[in-house]
Amino acid sequence: MMYLRRNEPSSRPIRRCSSVSESVSHVVTCPDNLAVGAGHNGMMTAARLRRLGIRTLIVDRTEDVGSNWSKRYERLRLHTPAFMNTFPYQDFPSTWPKYLPKSRVASFLRFYAESQDLTIWTSTTISRDTPPAYDADTQRWQVHLERSGSPIVVRPRHLVLATGWLGLPRELLHIPGRNDFRGSIFHTSRSPRGDSFAGKKVVIIGVVSFHSSRVTQRVVQLMNP
Ligand SMILES: Cc1cc2nc3c(=O)[nH]c(=O)nc-3n(C[C@H](O)[C@H](O)[C@H](O)COP(=O)(O)OP(=O)(O)OC[C@H]3O[C@@H](n4cnc5c(N)ncnc54)[C@H](O)[C@@H]3O)c2cc1C
Question: What is 2-161's CATH superfamily?
Answer without folding.
Answer: FAD/NAD(P)-binding domain (3.50.50.60)
